[in-house]
């Protein structure tokens, strides 16, 4: 395939930091344009189109087929210093069902390239298994725009240190239901969703984009389940016109991380997400969420806990499953309820939290001294495999509890002894390269040696250093940062932090950014600056998972009917293609970075996150599809993907409000880490 855009040899580039934007040219003879038309009940027919230059016309080119077609295609081209604004007009001469696509060659050798579709595709998705979208299955992928945190595809040539991106600029207001999810489908109404992606065409990396949506060579319908390709056809009535707009850029970046940074800033500036004008104050959010602390309490087993995992959305009935961290966050919820109970003089919350803390101190540790991190009393089963992430999250919660108590003159020496012992065992677990195994057993034998969860351990190690004044823990934390810098951040390879997937995920980059943020808070001078720089670099990857635009829903899809705006919500991972409210301390990191680097995008977007994540608060008359007040939903299915049930516009039938409540509570309690480090 040929090129539409190339930087001519004689063009002069202007350097802006590490980004060099070249002069962009439109060369219609080298652009591939295709129109696919479908008559219901018949296979679609694809037509290649050819350009014709127009004179004295609003549009610059008309595109025709060798056959007479019922649709006329026009292009308007606005060339700028760093981009092309391409407006496409389709006019129907008769009623017709269509799918329009165009291919743009980058001129880069496909084998020399890494790829980027924000919130879905990073490099070649090689951390993901063949059952999910990745190069293991194909080196060419086209997806519906709603899968992406910005409707953009970028291709980065490592050899040339150059990139090209294409993004869609239209208003995204409509979506339509489809009766099928594969093959050639006719939409029930108008949609705003197009498609975007990349293809290997004769060894050349090529941007592929069009309207309405397509997915190829596979569609991704649920976790680790690829399905046949899909092409959607929209009805265009006789005399009806549709306008579509894309923007194409070229530039230079010294490495993939720099490419992601530049592209996120470009997307942020392009889509300009604004905070939502939500009527729920932080005080009201906490008051409502606190009902979860009361309703979910289970106190009939040796461990007392808030039941917050594997609940049905239509009942929210408590069960026998207690999980210290990850999706349960029992101890963090207990601390949040404890702190809030004292602030609001809620004796019920204080009493419940006391029961939880006392039960875990008495019955919540294994023989070796680790947390019993996942216990199922319904099945009389205790998971013998530990995770560095859950253990770390338990430590994190108890450190906040102890610091809060110490500040008020209350001491808990038994808890302190437990935490010291756990941190000392962490030192034994740590590998020579600074990493921690992802999963292990009570006897320290390794189950999963992957280092992707390492940054979760950094937080309690730094907290342990501050609380106990023990430099060994700080040294250990610094060694984790050495590993993060070498294996994750410098390689732009953030993986397997979430415990129910093995792939590229948001939480690995978010935890990496938070880990180096913690180290920045306790160091000075050049060391402080170094950790701050790492925080900034990792944060761009975490930010890239968060939506900068509002995905449209079809009438009848609950999330759209109740008005959900997706801006500020983060996609989860390549395997788990839904959005959620996982943020915890990340908004604090963004605000801190904003001050450190005088970068207003960070703090502005933190406010977008804060306001947007209030939308699905369940309260009487506004239950948002869950059964109990304060049980904030989790698996928010915003694209044609489901976790097992219900699909776009709904939740999975099973959810885990334990972590959603904890995440939102931290979001609405800013400055915790900085206050802890100041003590």
Condensed summary:
The chain has 679 residues and is α+β, with helices and mostly antiparallel strands. The protein contains 15 helices and 33 strands.
Main traits of this protein?
679 residues, 25% strand, 17-stranded mixed β-sheet, 2 domains, alpha+beta, Glycosyltransferase, Beta-galactosidase, Chain A, domain 5, 15 helices, 3-stranded antiparallel β-sheet
Structure description:
A hairpin with a 2-residue loop joins strand 1 (14-16) and strand 2 (19-21). 53% of the residues are buried. 32% of the residues lie in helices and 25% in strands. It has 2 domains: 14-271, Beta-galactosidase, Chain A, domain 5 (Distorted Sandwich); 282-678, Glycosyltransferase, CATH 1.50.10.10. The strands form 8 sheets. It has a 17-stranded mixed beta sheet that branches. It is globular and about 85 Å long. The protein is an alpha+beta fold. Residues 1-23 have low confidence and may be disordered. It starts with 13 loop residues before the first strand and ends with a helix. It has 15 helices and 33 strands.
